[in-house]
Structure formats: C-alpha cells, structure tokens
Amino acid sequence: MSNKLLEVKDLNVRFKTDEGYITTVNGVSFDINQGETLAIVGESGSGKSVTSLSIMGILPKNGDVYNGEIIFDGTNLLSLNENEYRKIRGKDISMIFQEPMTALNPVFTIGFQMRESLKLHFNFSKDQAHKKAIEMLELVGLPDAYIIMKKFSHQLSGGMRQRVMIAMALSCDPKLIIADEPTTALDVTIQAQILKLIKKIRKELDSSVLIITHDLGVVAEIADRVVVMYAGEVVEEANVFDLFKNPKHPYTKGLLNSMPKVHSTDDKLYSIEGVVPNPSNMPKGCKFHPRCPLSDDECINNHPKLEYISKSHSKRCFKV
C-alpha cells in the first residue's frame, strides 16, 4: 500500500493577462509521503508559491490549473467543487502564509478568527472552540494565551503573529501543512524557534509538511527531500543529503555556492548572473541557458527532460 499523501502530476498553471494567457508553472510533478517534509526551493519567480496556491485551490481569479492532477489522500482535488474543496482546505490541508500581518484579519481579534475555523470544520460551540484555540496557542509556545485571544494582529510582534498563524494552521489537526516562506520576515533567533516548532509539531501530529523557501539554510534544517524549481519547472529533485553533497544541476550548484560560508576568507559572495526570465518571454531550449556557465548550442536549441540518475535523484540538464 502506498504511503503517498500528496501526488502532484504534470501540473500546469496559467494566468490571463491583457496580452493573453501566460504559463507560470509548466509540467511540475512531485509527491509527499506521510510524515515527510518536502522543500520546494528557488528564486522569486520560479513558481513555488503558485504551486502551493494551486494545491490549496486559492489561485487569483485570473489564474487556473489547465492541466495535471493534484491527488490528496486518494482524491483528485481538481475534480472537487468549491464546497467540497472548502471542507478539505483549512482542515486536512492547512497553510502558513508568508506574511501573517496580511493573512490575519486586522478588524477581528485573534480569538474570533481561531474560533471561526474550528466552528466551521468541527461544528464546535463557541466555548468548545475557545478552549481548543487556547490549547493551540499554548502548544506553539505563546504565554498568556487567554490574553492573546483578545488582541488584534497589530498588537503582536512578528514572531507572535507567525506563531498565531501556525496555531491556526494546526488547530484542525491537518494531514498536510503548507508553509510558504514561514521565516522570511523574522530575525534569525525567531527563525530558529519557528523551524524547531514546525519540526516538533510534525512529529507530534505525524503530519506532512510542504515548505516553500529560497533559503537553503532552512532546507538543510528541516527538509527530508528537496525539489528545486526554476522558471516554472522542476530542474532537480533529491533527498536533502544528496542535494547538498552531490548537486547536479548548474542552478542548484549556483544556489548552494551563494550561501555564506562560515570559514570563508572571501569578502565577496557568489551570485548567479542574470535574473529569472519573465514568464511572458521565456528563452527557447533550456530555460536556464542564458545564465548557465555550461550552456552551448544544444542547450540553446533543445529543451532537456527531467531524467533520473538514481532512484531518488533527478535532474534536467544535458551537461551533467
């Protein structure tokens, strides 16, 4: 029996613009096992967040999934209507958003927002939902939870808001937690606390985690497997140890080389030349070739396929 909780198969996402449709996610496939943490890593504009929003079914109105499947716990989410999707979203699949200040409603108290989710998914009374909400705030390490329940989001620090978001995401005991850049706006001390908390919760609830990040330090700390995305495509996938020890794709190597080195004597950080291409003007052939030190005519004229070099390691490159 398969222990795969989530299977994303050949996902294609496009957005309608004044110039026509633009594809931002092109043929992305990956899976997540029960109790596993998968990281999707890449620069801004690589399609990471669009992939996560597609799984949650909350793409902007001008975006749609026009091909592929998203199989969650045996059900193709793309076959559900909005009412059916709403029963899964927030309960079986929950999301920790990148910026809690915009994800939390500023006109309602923390307590009101936490109770509403619990009342919706479990048909709790107000008192039952209130008790459960306090338990969840205490679980994520927030002191005086009964006081925080009465506060508004602007009255909390960034770290406290992020913990509230995590408490809300966990309150319905989800099978899958999607964390979109959960530590980006936090200082390094709070980042470490949040990552430790996510690892603790995953273990206690036996939940799976999909973490979206551009920070390879976060990946090394929390992930079991890694998917590297570039320009809407998967360019490499491996377990976290293989990726750091033996990266194959030039883009992955560039990301790793861009990380600050503790014992380095070089004052200048390495950077990948150029920028991620605009989805409306993608290069022909390999999408990374304009920035790649290994590119040649084959890369310019042909589009490489994602190929497995071992049972758990794949890459999209002609040259490695």
The CATH homologous superfamily of the largest domain: P-loop containing nucleotide triphosphate hydrolases
Number of strands: 12
| Overall geometry | globular
Q: Low-confidence spans: pLDDT under 50, at least 5 residues?
A: none
What is the annotated CATH architecture of the largest domain? 3-Layer(aba) Sandwich
Oligomer: single chain
Strand order of the largest sheet: 6-7-8-3-9-10-12-11
Determine the structural class based on helices, strands and strand pairing: alpha/beta
Main beta sheet strand tally, sense and closure? 8 strands, mixed
CATH-defined topology of the largest domain: Rossmann fold
CATH class of the largest domain: Alpha Beta
Portion in helices: 25-40%
Spell the H/E element sequence. Answer: EEEHEEHEHHHHHEHEHEEHHHEE
* Overall number of domains: 2
- The helix count comes to 12
The N- and C-terminal alpha carbons lie at a distance of 35 Å
What is the radius of gyration computed over CA atoms, rounded to a whole number of angstroms? Answer: 20 Å
Average of per-residue pLDDT values: 90
The percentage of residues in β strands lies in 25-35%
Short summary:
With 320 residues, the chain is an alpha/beta fold. It has helices at 48-56, 82-88, 100-103, 110-122, 126-139, 145-148, 158-170, 188-205, 216-222, 240-245, 250-257, 297-301; strands spanning 4-17, 20-33, 37-41, 63-72, 75-76, 93-96, 176-180, 208-213, 225-230, 233-239, 307-310, 313-315.
